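Review form for a predicted model. The reviewer records the input and the model, then writes brief findings.
Reviewer: anonymous (R2)
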Amino acid sequence: MKTATMMTSKSAAQRLWHSRFEWWTMIVREGVVAGTLGGAIVALWYLLCDTIGGRPFHTPALLGAIFFNGLRGHDVGAATLAPVLSFSLLHFAAFIAFGLASALVIAAAEREPLLVLGALMVYGCYEVSFLSFVAVLDASPLGAIGLWKIAAANAITLVTVFGYFQYRHPQILRRFVERWNDSDAGEPAAQPMIAAGAIPLPAVRLGIVTTGRK
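Model under review:
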């Protein structure tokens, strides 16, 4: 009996660990993909704008010169490889970090749909921090890049990243609206549920073996 109980407990613990590993793997995978998509679409947007303006790669060259070469108070000439590559690496690393944070919030929103607002707050904090840091170093690039381009890049990023999360979690937007309406109506929240797209943690049940008296 003791051996059977130990084997059952070990098997349940292995299933629980495996499920948790899959859950975290899902978060990392979705976060990396979302961050890469967001970073790529913003990079393409600025490349398009720079090319139309006759200065390809001007935006990453300017920001790379400010971040890594200490450029202050004036523009850059022709784009060179080093600042473009350096800033591109920083750009994608920052977007992947944002994607990972958003993926974690979205996974938690499978239990509480209103946490979707938390993902928007994560992006807002990320963007404000980046723009503030650039402004502290040198405010002139914000005018050189163009505030309308920055606003458009933000809108494109939100549509891309949260469109991807909606694709991965197709029920989350509907559940968010339902939860929001319930909250407005003053109805008590329903018990947390795991949507079909999420990986649930298995319930650990131990078998109990009863024996009669001798």
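Findings: The helical segments are 2-52, 58-69, 81-109, 116-137, 140-145, 147-168, 172-185.
Further findings: The radius of gyration is 24 Å.
Recommendation: see findings above.
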